[in-house]
Amino acid sequence: SGFPKRSESEHDVWETGHSSTSLSAAMGMAIARDLKGTDEYIVPIIGDGALTGGMALEALNHIGHEKKDIIVVLNDNEMSIAPNVGALHNVLGRLRTAGKYQWVKDELEFLLKRIPAVGGKLAAT
Length: 125
Known about the structure:
mainly alpha
């Protein structure tokens, strides 16, 4: 479906029809985790197009303000309904072309390819 759907995956714990919800959901999960006193990792994934949504930006501000322990994975795949523009797009573009980023990416790809059986597939994603 392209969005979390409980009938598609046991890992989809809620359903939504909007692309910018992962960070808000992660914030809610982090608050619940902290109230329970447990130590699960909260790892939302968000695309560069979805990151431009107001809901995602509000969630980033909230996460930062509350200093929640959340690991955000940015899928910078340059896919969105309309072309990305603005400061955020420009910063991500500069980051993607920076020498240190390219070096880390190349080293990680090299290491992944050395994993028997699955390394090639992991490196290709």
